[in-house]
Design goal:
Largest sheet: 8 strands, parallel
Structural class: alpha/beta
Oligomer: single chain
Strand content: 5-15%
Number of domains: 2
CATH architecture of the largest domain: Alpha-Beta Barrel
Radius of gyration: 26 Å
Distance between the termini: 50 Å
Strand order of the largest sheet: 8-7-6-3-2-1-12-11
Helix content: 25-40%
Order of helices and strands: HHHEHEHHEHEEHEHEHHEEEHHEHE
CATH superfamily of the largest domain: Glycosidases
Length: 406
């Protein structure tokens, strides 16, 4: 963690001080008497806290905040949480989690179709053909690029800004009663950390790269938190109904042993940082907007060693929806759900979907809404059966990647 070093000032000793030492001795004696009277009056129980204030922590960090994972009160409500010490600019009073949105059957818009009139008409046709009522639009992908024209306050905006008129797209979709979900990559970003080293995961002072030579925003970085939050808030201001977060994890691939994240970096502090970050986004977008979390294959596989910072039990208390990726193209052979290997070919989609739903409900509770991500091939009976299966599991709709063309 990054902390300001405590300043220390030496006592000035001059001839005037030495000549008046007798007066100071009298003053000190009077103060000692007053202190003794105060202790008698307030009780000796306060002595320990007084001495702690006087001497401070031996390491020189007497004001260091200890980051703890947010705890959900017994009454089920969300209590105000304390963000990481390095994010003192982002104190986040938590709001009660909003009521889950109605079931949304969404089409994933993959090719920028949302930003042209012709493209939007094609998307609306897809929605009608598949009985869908929502769209998912990528607004910030893993490269760090934005797909739309943004005006967020970032020193590197000219390097990431897109060209799409998102406000116009959202308006046309809403005019057709379409629910709009904006999909936002968080810490996996190959532009911002390179252009603004202050928010980067580093090694020896320079930007650290994973095994794919890709940079990451440091999940402890207050600048990173504020940048992502400013995008989410801007999207909501354009009329987006829901923010879907992805890549909200610590990097685990590559030479992570040489990556620097923070002083006293621990698995517990990582989990608390990710949970509090998600809580901040939920707070910042406001109670009128929904927040969902994409749950990829690596998160469905199980808790692992915890180095990615994910605690699904804590995270689910800060969002409105979990969206597990159940695309059969991702699991072309085998899937691992909570440590158990599943053969998609032999066991079938029903086993995959039910195992994923059971795992998420075990971690997050039965009340958490689940909206799975599916591959849908136009006219395929298998695709239709996948939707029927997820509906039977009590899922709140689904997200469809259309693989058979329009």
């Amino acid at each position: 963690m990054y902390r300001r070093k405590r300043s220390s000032f030496g006592r000035y000793r001059g001839s005037r001080f030495e000549s008046r030492s007798g007066i100071f001795k009298i003053i000190l004696a009077v103060l000692a008497v007053l202190l003794a009277l105060w202790l008698i009056f307030t009780g000796l129980s306060n002595l320990g806290s007084f001495m702690e204030i006087f001497k401070g922590d031996a390491s020189g960090r007497e004001n260091e905040q200890q980051l703890q994972p947010p705890q959900k009160p017994a009454d089920g409500s969300s209590a105000p949480q304390t963000p990481p010490a390095e994010n003192t600019s982002a104190v986040v009073p938590s709001e009660p989690v909003a009521e889950p949105p109605a079931a949304a059957y969404a089409v994933y818009v993959t090719d920028g179709s949302a930003y042209t009139e012709k493209g939007r008409q094609g998307v609306l046709s897809d929605l009608s053909a598949h009985g869908a009522n929502a769209v998912v639009i990528d607004v910030k992908d893993g490269s760090g690029k934005l797909s739309y024209i943004s005006s967020v306050d970032a020193p590197f905006l000219d390097k990431v800004n897109g060209k799409g008129d998102l406000a116009a797209a959202v308006q046309e979709f809403k005019d057709n009663d379409v629910y709009v979900i904006a999909r936002l990559s968080c810490f996996y970003d190959d532009i911002a950390p390179r252009r603004y080293n202050k928010m980067a995961v580093k090694t020896s002072g320079v930007t650290w790269l994973d095994r794919n030579y890709h940079s990451w925003i440091n999940p402890y970085s207050p600048e990173g938190w504020d940048y992502i939050s400013s995008i989410a808030q801007e999207l909501c201001g354009m009329g987006v109904d829901e923010i879907m977060l992805r890549d909200y994890v610590f990097p685990t691939l590559g030479k992570v042993n040489i990556a620097y994240f923070s002083e006293n970096d621990t698995i517990e502090k990582r989990a608390a940082a990710i949970t509090t970050f998600v809580e901040k986004i939920k707070h910042d977008i406001g109670s009128g907007k929904a927040l969902s979390l994409e749950v990829g294959s690596e998160l469905l596989a199980g808790d692992g060693d915890g180095k990615n910072g994910i605690d699904l039990t804590q995270l689910s208390a800060q969002c409105d929806m979990l969206c597990p990726v159940l695309r059969t193209s991702v699991y072309s052979k085998n899937a691992v759900i909570d440590g158990n290997k599943i053969s998609v070919k032999n066991d079938g989609f029903t086993v995959l979907a039910s195992s994923a739903a059971d795992y998420l409900r075990q971690k997050a509770g039965d009340g958490i809404p689940i909206r799975p991500w599916l591959d849908i091939n136009a006219g395929s009976t298998d695709s239709e059966s996948q939707i029927i299966t997820t509906d039977s599991l009590g899922c709140f709709g689904c997200i469809m990647t259309l693989t058979g063309g329009r």
